[in-house]
Design brief:
Layout (H helix, E strand, L loop, with lengths): L5 E5 L4 H13 L4 E4 L8 H6 L7 E4 L2 E4 L1 H11 L11 H30 L3 H19 L24 H15 L12 H8 L1 H11 L2 H4 L4 H16 L1
Parallel strand pairs: 1-2
Antiparallel strand pairs: 1-3, 3-4
Helix pairs in contact: 1-3, 1-6, 4-5, 4-6, 6-8, 7-8
The structure holds glutathione.
Glutathione binds next to helix 3.
């Protein structure tokens, strides 16, 4: 298959757009990057690309695909790889169902508390959100990372995979924020969060630490910039 012509419309501060970067890097696909300035109204040409005005969008051989989960899934389907097994085998269909459930649990039971912590108006609110976040990981995520789920596979990634899967593609940019925005200078997450995760959800902590160390996950990550801009944006929104 000839290499596709891919244009990625993105912004490096956006965790949703970041998903597409991880997928493209894991798949080894070349792409042209167009940075969309999200601090200004979208220009008419971009609203023609994506009428919602959001990033990410991709142009894939001239066809536009939007929404980060759909973009990532499309790329993984169009370029079969370690990210996802084929859907037309029993094991592949099961892996896809397990990844989909894991990602759903992460985004419905954990990430809302991360956002609540980022938006917290006081230290007490932040501690409450932190406790809810950890409880969500404990109840919903930690059991899905138990070795008994992995059918004898012992790799560090989801399902005991030796390489990243679509589960890490879809969660990695949020793991970076969850693990690395607790520094006091940002004041965005409880400083105790990494330690509490280590104590109460050690499998999750190990999996998340390994995931954020992967080059495909962190090559566009700039903690200082994300921390500072997130703080500024939340302060402006709170006024
Ligand atoms: N559901 C969308 C969410 C994307 C999204 O919210 N992107 C934000 C940046 S992080 C955006 O483009 N915001 C522009 C705006 O709201 O004007 C996806 O997963 O792609």
């Amino acid at each position: 298959m000839a290499a596709p012509k891919i244009i990625l419309y993105t912004n490096h501060l956006c965790p949703w757009a970041h998903r597409a970067h991880i997928a493209l890097k894991e798949l080894g696909l070349e792409y042209e990057e167009v940075i969309i300035d999200l601090t200004k109204p979208r220009e008419p040409w971009y609203l023609e690309v994506n009428p919602r005005g959001l990033v990410p969008s991709i142009s894939y051989n001239g066809t536009i695909i939007t929404e980060s989960a759909i973009v990532s899934q499309f790329l993984a389907d169009a370029h079969p790889s370690h990210l996802l097994s084929a859907s037309n085998t029993g094991a592949g269909a099961l892996q896809r169902a397990r990844i989909a459930f894991f990602v759903d649990a992460f985004f419905t039971k954990v990430i809302p508390h991360l956002f609540a912590s980022l938006r917290a108006a006081s230290d007490a609110d932040r501690e409450t959100a932190t406790e809810a976040l950890i409880a969500g990981v404990e109840t919903e995520i930690e059991p899905l990372l138990a070795p008994a789920q992995d059918g004898g596979a012992t790799g560090p990634f989801f399902g005991g995979s030796e390489k990243l899967t679509l589960a890490e593609v879809l969660t990695g940019s949020f793991l970076l924020r969850l693990l690395l925005l607790h520094k006091p200078e940002y004041g965005l997450l409880s400083a105790k969060l990494p330690e509490l995760l280590e104590q109460r959800t050690p499998r999750f902590k190990r999996w998340a630490d390994t995931t954020v160390q992967q080059e495909s996950v962190n090559f566009i990550w700039d903690a200082e910039n994300v921390g500072r801009k997130t703080k500024e944006r939340l302060a402006a929104a709170a006024k």
